[in-house]
Amino acid sequence: MTTTEKKLRIGRIEFTNAWPVFYHFPVQKLANSVEFVSQVPTGLNRALAAGEIDMSAISSFSYGENFRDYVLFPDLSVSAYGHVNSLLLFHKKPLEQLKNGRFALPTTSATTTNLLKIIMNKKYGGNPTYSYAPPVLEDMMKDNDAALLIGDHAIKANWQDSGYTVTDLGQEWKEWTGHWMSFAVWAVRKDTIERSPELVKSIFDGFVESKRKSLEDLTGVINEAVLKIGGTESYWEHYFRNLCYEFGPEQWSGLELYYRYAWELGFLPEEVSIQIWSDNTRVRVTE
């Protein structure tokens, strides 16, 4: 780091689904150049948009809101082609019967709440009433027909026999569209790239290497999940292996469809183009 550069602030998602990308990151090697900020996705979304942090794992929807200011790292995401196991809708009746029902949403992420709205509108032709609530399942269901939970809250709630029907939104999206869905992406502010291109590359390399090491041997990540969240080693082995941490053309295509639907429904003010970082250049992804 040169004297003209300041430390880059990197946002770290607190949810376990992103742990493999962070677990082996060379913190000590870059200790004088970076600092981490840990929050739930909505907090990181806001901080990156405000320029309070320089790069972050964020909700995919937040990139759609701020794509003119960001580029995305390739090869890094939290994606799924089907079941995610931590983006779960708990409901009292089949979704076909809840087209105009009452849905409780968490305040911790933007991507999945809008994915639910897209599915209910585009697939089921519905227009439910949505309200936000703390992520406590029984409280959310008191006056609602369905409740969405994400991340570790969804995992823990699903370990209990609540008696509700549980729909995995990743599987719902795949069955409906045939596409991948990327729930979190790694975004960098364009002004950060212009200011510190070499450091940005070092950070990217660190994340890719961390992902590689984690997926090569998940023992450390699994043990930490059991210690901090609970559950069994076999559960977490399946959970992490089921997720995809790549971000290439298949994932881009699914995300483009998601953004198009979000724009058509008025959730985004304009059509979104995906721009991918490549050393010091940006490559626009087109359909």
Automatic annotation (TrEMBL):
**Catalyses which reaction(s):** chorismate = 3-[(1-carboxyvinyl)-oxy]benzoate + H2O
Q: Which InterPro entries match?
A: Menaquinone_biosynth, MqnA
The signal peptide here is: none
Q: Name one GO molecular function term.
A: hydro-lyase activity
A Pfam family per the record: VitK2_biosynth
| Annotated pathway | Quinol/quinone metabolism; menaquinone biosynthesis
Q: Which UniProt keywords apply?
A: Lyase, Menaquinone biosynthesis
Entry-linked Gene3D superfamilies: Periplasmic binding protein-like II
Q: Name one GO biological process term.
A: menaquinone biosynthetic process
**Top-level taxon of origin:** Bacteria
EC number(s) per entry: 4.2.1.151
Can you tell me which family this protein belongs to? Belongs to the MqnA/MqnD family. MqnA subfamily.
Report the function annotation for this chain.
Catalyzes the dehydration of chorismate into 3-[(1-carboxyvinyl)oxy]benzoate, a step in the biosynthesis of menaquinone (MK, vitamin K2).
* Full protein name: Chorismate dehydratase
The organism's lineage is: Bacteria, Bacillati, Bacillota, Bacilli, Bacillales
